[in-house]
Amino acid sequence: MAENNSQGSNAQGATDAAGEQPQLQFGLQRIYVKDISFESPNAPQVFQEAFKPKVNVDLGTSSTKIGEDLFEVVVKITARVNHSETDNTCFLAEIEQAGLFRITGLEGERLDHTLGAFCPSMLFPYARECIDNLVNRGSFPPLMLAPVNFDAMYLQNKQRKEQADTQDGDTPLQ
Question: Which site from 26, 105, 127, 152 is most exposed, i.e. has the minimal number of CB atoms within 10 Å?
Answer without folding.
Answer: 152
